[in-house]
Amino acid sequence: MFIDRVKIHVQGGHGGNGVTAFRREKFVPRGGPSGGDGGRGGDVWVVADSSLNTLLHLRYNPEHIADRGRHGEGSNCSGRDGDDHTIRVPVGTQIFDSTTGELLHDLAVDGARWLVAKGGRGGFGNSHFATSTNRAPRYHQSGSEGEELELQLELKLLADVGLVGFPNAGKSTLISTVSAARPKVADYPFTTLEPNLGVVDLGDFRTFVMADMPGLIEGAHQGAGLGDRFLRHIERTKLLLHLVDVSSASGRDAVTDYLTVNHELHSYNPELAQRPQFVVATKIDALDEPERLEALRRQAAADGLPFYEISSVTNRGTKELVAAIAVRLDELTEAARQAGMIELAV
Ligand SMILES: Nc1nc2c(ncn2[C@@H]2O[C@H](COP(=O)(O)OP(=O)(O)OP(=O)(O)O)[C@@H](O)[C@H]2O)c(=O)[nH]1
Ligand SMILES: [Mg+2]
């Protein structure tokens, strides 16, 4: 199951109490105060881990409390500090304060760590309070409580390229021919129910990540079909591949499909409709009415968008498409770098 939103409760460990104690030893007169300090409570951290791809493991495990600090002891022994508690999440997880809705942090890089709840301080033992005028203090401090928060975690997949289009347009088929991803492919709508990522290998250790998405239909922004909530997973992609079935098997008009999907993207987020987009005519091996392909080509040209035609069955055009994507991604990365929008991840 693909879980992309969970609520969790986090709490730093409480600090241990200090203690009041006096040294009492045979043959040693005037022992003096010897109460040790309490240990510090453990912190709660969230860490981005690229081996995870959903938040499912947190759905049934919403309580995250770090270890408490031990109390101080006599003979000036400090209590042991509590162990930290680490919550692993997929890369691309955003942390919100669920009470205020404020975005606290965005874990966009593998291995990124974020301190979400600090453990409490340990209390001082009485030996800490000894002064020249009060050599035998009979008080100690309690440990302070760990920080406590309700958090909402949301996963936004990090892909370079997002596939959009009507159900059955051939999105999953394309990702399964150009990457090692093997999503389910079938000739009925809404085969894909949740996003999948595929890594496209360009050779020379160069890769990009493609996200296969559930299909969109008219009214998706009002909840039709699977709705448009999955679109937030492609909000961070650099390039959209808009797949349109140009065979007559779809029973619909290719240009209308194309305009409908773009309208849904716009209704979801106008900024997404402005994202660089390639228009990709699919299933050209099954093209029975060439005019369908030409009409779509004219529409793409009118919108000023690059146009490609492919068949994932015969592989016609897929290599060229992948090469064009790679070039475009490089250009987009370079442009973003020049605009100072990307910091190089170290
Ligand atoms: N002839 C032909 N059929 C194709 C091609 N690509 C996909 N198909 C068929 O089209 C149907 C739908 O393909 P999918 O890849 O599941 O389509 P999808 O866009 O992922 O559909 P949803 O997940 O439902 O949104 C399947 O029966 C595929 O075999 C192609 O290039 N040529
Ligand atoms: Mg699919």
List the helices and strands and how they pair.
Elements (H helix, E strand, L loop, with lengths): L4 E7 L32 E5 L7 H4 L3 E3 L19 E5 L3 E5 L5 E5 L5 E5 L30 E8 L5 E5 L5 H8 L17 E8 L2 E7 L26 E7 L8 H15 L1 H4 L3 E6 L7 H13 L4 E3 L8 H21 L8
Parallel strand pairs: 1-3, 2-4, 9-11, 9-12, 12-13, 13-14
Antiparallel strand pairs: 1-8, 2-7, 5-6, 5-8, 10-11
The site of magnesium ion has 6 residues, from helix 2.
Task: Explain what you see.
- This protein has 346 residues and is α/β, with parallel strands linked by helices.
- It is 19% helix and 23% strand.
- It contains 6 helices and 14 strands.
- The longest helix is centred in the C-terminal third of the chain and has 21 residues.
- The chain is elongated.
- The two termini are 32 Å apart.
- The mean pLDDT is 90.
- It binds guanosine-5'-triphosphate (GTP) and magnesium ion.
- Magnesium ion (MG) binds next to helix 2.
Distance between the termini: 32 Å
Query: Average pLDDT across residues?
Result: 90
Low-confidence segments: none
Instruction: Give me the side-by-side strand order of the main sheet.
Output: 10-11-9-12-13-14
